[in-house]
Amino acid sequence: xxxxxxxxxxxxxxxxxSSTALLVHYDSALPLVIAADASPYGLGAVLSHRMxxxxxxxxxxxxxxxxxxxxxxxxxxxxxxxxxxxxxxxLMHYQYSLVYKPGPTIxxxxxxxxxPLPQAVTSPSIPPELISLLQELETAPxxxxxxxxxxxxxLLSRVCRFVGEGWPVTCPSEDLLPxxxxxxEQRVESGVLLWGMRVVVPPHGRETLLEELHxxxxxxxxxxxxxxxxxxxxxxDTALEDRVKSCLTCQQLRNAPPAAPICPWEWPGKPWxxxxxxxxxxxxxxxxxxxxxxxxxxxxxxxxxxxxxxxIEHLRSAFSIHSLPHSVVSNNxxxxxxxxxxxxxxxxxxxxxxxxxxxxxxxGLVERAVQTLKQALRxxxxxxxxxxxxxxxxxxxxxPHTTTGVSxxxxxxxxxxxxxxxxxRPDVHAKVLHKQEKMLEGSNSSRSLRDLPxxxxxxxxDFSGKAKWLPGQVLAKTGPMSYQVEVDGKLWRRHVDHLLAxxxxxxxxxxxxxxxxxxxxxxxxxxxxxWDFPKDSPRNSSPEGEPPTKRVSPAPPGDVPAGxxxxxxxxxxxxxxxxxxxxxxxxxxxxx
Length: 592
Hints:
Blueprint: H1 4-17, E1 32-38, E2 42-50, E3 56-65, H2 68-71, H3 76-80, H4 84-91, H5 107-114, H6 141-152, H7 154-165, H8 177-180, E4 186-189, E5 192-195, E6 198-200, H9 203-213, H10 220-230, E7 231-232, H11 236-245, H12 248-252, E8 274-280, E9 287-292, E10 298-302, H13 308-322, E11 327-330, H14 334-337, H15 339-347, E12 351-354, H16 364-379, H17 385-398, H18 408-413, H19 428-443, E13 457-461, E14 469-477, E15 482-487, E16 490-495, E17 499-501, H20 566-575
Parallel strand pairs: 6-7, 8-11, 11-12
Antiparallel strand pairs: 1-2, 2-3, 4-5, 5-6, 8-9, 9-10, 13-14, 13-17, 14-15, 15-16
Region (Disordered): 501-592
Pfam families: Integrase_H2C2, RT_RNaseH_2
Protein name: Gypsy retrotransposon integrase-like protein 1
């Protein structure tokens, strides 16, 4: 039962909580502990000092009831607040550590949250001057200077007035916008404007502080880290960056920038179009390397000295074998930039591309080849240099390249080259090709391929057994050695060996029957022969060397039409028209 004695005991407990027997004064030398808790209807907090005996003595208490809107939030949200990001930004100015403790272990904060005041009471706040660490700097000369500069500066004096009297709802002017955005975090102490724990420096003192920050040339990052702990003004980061960028000492001794992204050369579409050249030396006297960008084919020329004359001679030899390239890439060595070398490339229509100075990776294809060549020659011992170099080039050219997956020789020549490894397995195809090559070499030594144009007049071999050669006309070429010809209105297909060129008299000129006609066998125009072989045929002469036995006398001139072949006329007279002996069968139509 709640009576007078209970009320007196409760009041005595409240007085005791706020008495010196329990509370202690704030001491900047002692660590602070804040215990906070929340209930569904109230908030409670206790600010305490951690004493030397490891006990907590309260400095002050706080408690209030939740608003109706706040009561709708979950319990975790009133404890940490839904505006976690905003609170995190505010707490960044302080050094603290979070420790979780169950509610029963912080009964003082838990009790204040469960027995809050019925309404929020505005208690007089402690003047910040009493707890601010900057209070100790009141007597420092820099503080008086900042106070004087702040009071005389038109912009900062307005900001100080707004901080003391309250900011308007909207920003009054554009120059006040940086301060307006931070209006909830600003205060004025001893006439000095502060943003959190950072001093807002007036324009008169900014140059001096920039010089102090840049005294030992620490760099942009370290200067920003130091400045963000003590000072601030609008555009501070930009001012620090400009100071470092304008410092001649800092720029001359700065580190190299990040490496640029890799930009490979455009891959040519055919071999020996883009060539990379470089010298490997002094190594084994010196060597000139030329590598094809398409096939990765490598040429190596040993030289006694890296001179423009030697370079031109070796490149001329390579160009005579592989043709002239479109472009040649080299570094900026004197041997490649001398006028004699550039004139040689210009005369041959070759574009000369030089890499950036002191950047070997621009010509990285041949630079890598130089490294590979040196390693290979160091690993091989014994024998002459030319022998070891030839073995290295054979291995390099016949081995599939890591970039293309095909050997440089196959990419260069468009075929698979033969190596000693091919001897391990039988190659029937190679044997057949070898036999064919031997056969063609013997048979084609005295032969030449004849090409007959369209509409050409020819003598056509007749295999019907009546006449040996018939006049015809070439219509089209149906293969490398076959033609389609028209003979007496019929279309025949004949090999070039079965065709002979035929001379036709010009229009309007008659044929002198008394003159020999030009036939394949060179017989007289008026003769009709039973054996009509060319002179080179074995059948043209008998084994005993006697001429053919069957001959006929020349035909009368009137029997040969003008412009017609005398031989054809004789044949038509003797044999008559030729007809096919194939039996014909009428087609069966509508046989349903």
